[in-house]
Backbone:
């Protein structure tokens, strides 16, 4: 691990130590972010599932009503009935920020506030089944819009969680161990240099003393 | 000001027209991809697509999964529920958690 052209100098050591501190702090922050995102995501995705089931049931029911209505009316009559819609739905989109994930919030606006404007036809030439069908679809519409908002949010959050998790893992398993190993490598290299300098000095001192006092000769002479 | 679109087989979606949503009927996915692109680039914030049509144009839908708008939501068509929509929710759990721990056994 400790390798790759690291110059074992004191300057490098301080630089790496500082880097390690920053990395650790970043790791902790990202981990907190991931945990909080996960917590919120869990709540949201549960709601998403419940809503989806409700909406799918509602649409299935509405579809059944439509099939029923169609069975008593000709295709043309149905087409004519829906040719000109009275009601119009528009959306105002704003943002909600959840842990730096921007989640859309939809605000619905109907063109007319009259509830009966969903029936875009006169009642003379259409079956009452069609009215039921349109009514059941209109009942489920608010849930459908809520579903759109939540499902999109869930998807965006899932992507963000995945990204954050990767970052946390990269820091935890690659960057932090690598930096730690490098610091260890440099400090042991520096220690070794220091020891070798010390030994060299002792050796030189020995040699100098020997040259000055000739201990070995004296010993030999007794 | 944004609008809402519904794409799918004519029989599955014509009712939405009465509610004031813009309907775009398609029988095959061939032209639907083009249309989706056009809708996404104009001011449609929510696009509902029937599951059967969506399964034929998954790559086009995938393209918009990362952006905030439009939100593309699958709905069951008149031919029945294929479970594709529920799968989508499970997939996002899987992406976030690593494995589907919430709805694993439930279908």
Residues:
């Amino acid at each position: 691990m400790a390798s790759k052209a690291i110059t074992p100098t004191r300057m490098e050591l301080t630089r790496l130590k500082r880097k390690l501190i920053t990395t650790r702090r970043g790791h902790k922050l990202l981990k907190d972010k991931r945990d909080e995102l996960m917590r919120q995501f869990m709540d949201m995705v549960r709601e998403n599932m419940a809503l989806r089931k409700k909406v799918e049931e509602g649409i299935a029911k509405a579809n059944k009503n439509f099939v029923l209505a169609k069975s008593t009316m000709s295709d043309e009559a149905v087409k004519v009935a829906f040719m000109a819609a009275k009601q119009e739905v528009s959306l105002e989109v704003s943002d909600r920020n959840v842990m730096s994930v921007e989640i859309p919030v939809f605000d619905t606006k109907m063109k007319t506030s009259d509830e009966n404007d969903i029936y875009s036809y006169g009642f003379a030439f259409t079956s009452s089944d069609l009215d039921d069908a349109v009514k059941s679809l209109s009942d489920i519409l608010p849930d459908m819009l809520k579903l759109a908002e939540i499902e999109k949010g869930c998807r965006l959050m899932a992507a963000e969680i995945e990204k954050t998790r990767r970052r946390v893992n990269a820091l935890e398993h690659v960057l932090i161990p690598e930096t730690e190993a490098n610091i260890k490598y440099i400090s042991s290299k520096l220690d070794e240099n220091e020891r070798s300098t010390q030994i060299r000095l002792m050796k030189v001192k020995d040699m100098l003393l020997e040259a000055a006092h000739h201990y070995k000769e004296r010993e030999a002479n007794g | 000001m944004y609008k809402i679109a519904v794409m799918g087989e004519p029989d599955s979606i014509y009712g939405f027209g009465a509610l004031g949503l813009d309907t775009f009927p398609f029988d095959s996915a061939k032209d639907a991809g083009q249309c989706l692109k056009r809708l996404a680039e104009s001011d449609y914030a929510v696009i509902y697509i029937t599951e059967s049509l969506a399964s034929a144009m998954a790559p086009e839908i995938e393209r918009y999964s990362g952006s905030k708008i439009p939100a593309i939501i699958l709905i069951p068509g008149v031919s029945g529920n294929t479970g594709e929509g529920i799968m989508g929710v499970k997939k996002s759990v899987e992406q976030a958690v690593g494995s589907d721990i919430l709805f694993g056994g439930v279908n």
